[in-house]
Amino acid sequence: MARVNLDGNPIPTMAICMIGGGGFIGSHICEMLMAETVHKAIVVDVSSDKINHLLDKSLPWSHRIEYHQMNIKNDSRLETLIKASDLTINLAAICTPADYNTRPLDTIYINFIDAIPVIKFCTENNKRLIHFSTCEVYGKTIGSFLPQEYRKDPEYYILKEDVSPCIFGPVDKQRWSYACAKQMTDRLIYAEHAENGLKFTIVRPFNWIGPRMDFIPGVDGPSDGVPRVLACFSNNLLRGEPLKLVDGGQSQRTFLYIKDAIEAVSLMIDNPERANGQIFNVGNPDNEVSVKELAEHMIRAYAKVSDVPTSSLQTQNVSSEDFYGKGYDDSDRRIPDMTNITKQLGWKPTTPLDKLLDVTLQYQHQTYSRAINKELSKPSN
């Protein structure tokens, strides 16, 4: 029986070019495409580590997924692959805060300059584009600038795609290079749509987390690397180290389970009439906690899956300058308004924070604990 979209129309089979499709989000999209659709995935990335389990030629979908090892910065094959596809999904990004200070040029080039030819090829070849932006384009909330007595009003914190201003810190706070580059890309896409008819959807993820997110330093990433908060805290837990709370962990975030997020992406893929020309916040406003509270939730979840007592798992306050270096700054809260995606696609998140952390920490423990324990058991020189 043919699959139908939200309007009851048959969904045509598509070839989907996924730039950066070998990463955390891309790997989960690929799994969904192979398991739930008949679409073809043309995956472009510098590494296939997170999708190797899908590339086995003996698997029933092997004819529907192909991998091209490629750096889009300097590879002429990119336009050919986009021309051969019905839809391009652009996931390529540097999106780890530790890199914004130490690699600001790469952050700007990869998140803006390198996206320009992708947008150009989609426009010139009349191809649809789903582009992954970030909730960081909103920057700081209005509430963070108000006197304390006004800060309890949620209207000052809820971020709306077509209303909320984008408020960044000064230029010497290079942490904002990522948000600024992503915002410029959003504006370029919208301009190509307005002037040249580009069919686009912009996705603004609000802290999607789950298995295969980032890396564990010294195991499947550089030993001196600093991944995002979930992987940082996971690394601390696996090693029995204190979870480091940057500036006390007071910043607040909402967290969305990757499986819920992929359901939203699937709806965007299969419902172009509803998704084209739209910017979608994709998050879970019910899962808001401070980073300190996230650490406490993760300690409890990890204790359950590892049989390590919670009393042995601690937190430690560190300054942002000590952890990230000079030039660090941050947003205070990120609460997505979900009106648009619910109206257009009927999507709502379903997984509560405790459940998504249980699943994720179970994966982290099963995947990494043996390698970490082997490393820790080596005699020191």
What this model shows, in words?
The protein has 381 residues and is of the alpha/beta class. It has one domain (93-370): NAD(P)-binding Rossmann-like Domain (Rossmann fold, 3-Layer(aba) Sandwich). It is 38% helix and 15% strand. The protein contains 13 helices and 15 strands. The protein has helices at 24-36, 77-83, 97-102, 104-113, 115-124, 177-196, 229-239, 258-270, 272-275, 291-306, 320-324, 339-345, 353-376, and strands at 15-19, 40-45, 65-69, 87-90, 128-132, 158-159, 200-205, 208-209, 243-246, 252-254, 256-257, 278-282, 288-290, 315-318, 335-336. A seven-stranded parallel beta sheet has the order 3-2-1-4-5-7-12, with helices on both faces. Strands 6-15 form a two-stranded parallel ribbon. Helix 1 links the parallel strand 1 and strand 2 (40-45). Helix 1 crosses helix 8, helix 4 packs parallel to helix 6 and helix 7 packs across helix 10. The protein starts with 14 loop residues before the first strand and ends in a 5-residue tail after the last helix. 45% of the residues are buried. The mean pLDDT is 93. It holds the Pfam family Epimerase. Residues 16-283 form the NAD-dependent epimerase/dehydratase domain. It comes from Clitoria ternatea (Butterfly pea). This is NAD-dependent epimerase/dehydratase domain-containing protein. InterPro entries: Epimerase_deHydtase (IPR001509), Lipid_A_modif_metabolic_enz (IPR050177), NAD(P)-bd_dom_sf (IPR036291).
